[in-house]
Structure formats: structure tokens, C-alpha cells
Amino acid sequence: MAAHFSLVPSCCGITLKNGTLWLAEICTMVGVVLVIFSSFAIDEVLYHWHWYNNYGIVSASLHGVGLVLGIFQTMTSALLGYAAYKEIPKLMLPWVIFYSVQTVALFVLMILFSIWCIIYFEPIPLGIILFLVTTAYCHAFRYFILVVYSYYRQLLVCATDSSNHVMQLA
């Protein structure tokens, strides 16, 4: 039996196509900014910190992960924008998969980090605030993933209907 998703009819009051294009533009810009900042941060760490210092190794590694994620985010978001503009549903799936994995991973990591902040730091509100912000971010992106998936399904249904119509004419 196929999984059932409740699809949304529109994105924040605009059509699914426009919402998907808007989302692709925003995510592409954020990805480019992440790549730029991660590149500068890696350069700063390599220039000022020595490799025998654990901070330099950990910091460069984290910024390297940020750089790779920024590149993937930029590529999948640009691909989403192209796919939404040209109405090619197959090219939307990399964005949906990437952001689904990223959102779940971020949620798990931030819950662990929030618990760590609550246990090891005196200001408990820091951990609670991190948890609330992360929860809000993940719910927002869950909605955006659902918007893109809804547009993907809409394009598939339109393609199936038009192919069935062509077969009936033949």
C-alpha cells in the first residue's frame, strides 16, 4: 500500500509553482552565502591556528562540512528552481531528499546539543531556546518540503492525465 501524504493546495497564499520557485531562490541564496562564509572561515582557521591545536582541527573540519553542505544546498536548490520553471518533476526529488535528511539530522543534533547545554551549563534557558528555535525551523521546513512534494505530485498527475488523454485519442 502506498504512503499517503496530505498535500497542500498552495504555498502561503500563492500557487505551488510560485512557492516552489520562491523557495528555490531563497535556498540557493542561503547556500551561496554558506559556501562563502565557510570558505572564509576555513581560510581564517588555517591562517591563525596551528594544527597541533585541537581547536584548529575541529574548527576546520566543521567549516569543511558546512562548505560541503552549502555546495549541495546550492546545487539542489538551483536544480529545484530549474525543475519548477521547466515543470520537470524528476529533478525536484534531489531537493526533497536533501532537505528531508538535513532537517531530520539538524533536529536530532540540536536536541542533543540542547540537552548538553542544559546538563553542563548553568543557564538552562539557552538549551530551551535552542530547542524551541530548532523545532520551529524544522516545522517550517517540513511545510516547505510538503509544498515542493505537492507541486511534484501535481506535475506527475498532470503528466499522467495528458498521457492518458493522448492514448485515448489514438
Global mean pLDDT: 80
Radius of gyration: 20 Å
* Secondary-structure element string: HHHH
Give the tally of structural domains: 1
Main beta-sheet annotation: none
Distance between the termini: 32 Å
Q: What is the subunit arrangement here? A: single chain
In the predicted model, the low-confidence regions spanning at least 5 consecutive residues are: none
How much of the residues is beta strand, in percent? under 5%
Describe this structure in words.
- The protein has 170 residues and is mostly helical.
- The two termini are 32 Å apart.
- The chain contains 4 helices and no strands.
- It has one domain.
Task: Using brief descriptors, characterize the structure shown.
single chain; mainly alpha; 170 residues; 82% helix; 4 helices
Topology of helices and strands:
Blueprint: H1 16-48, H2 54-86, H3 93-120, H4 124-169
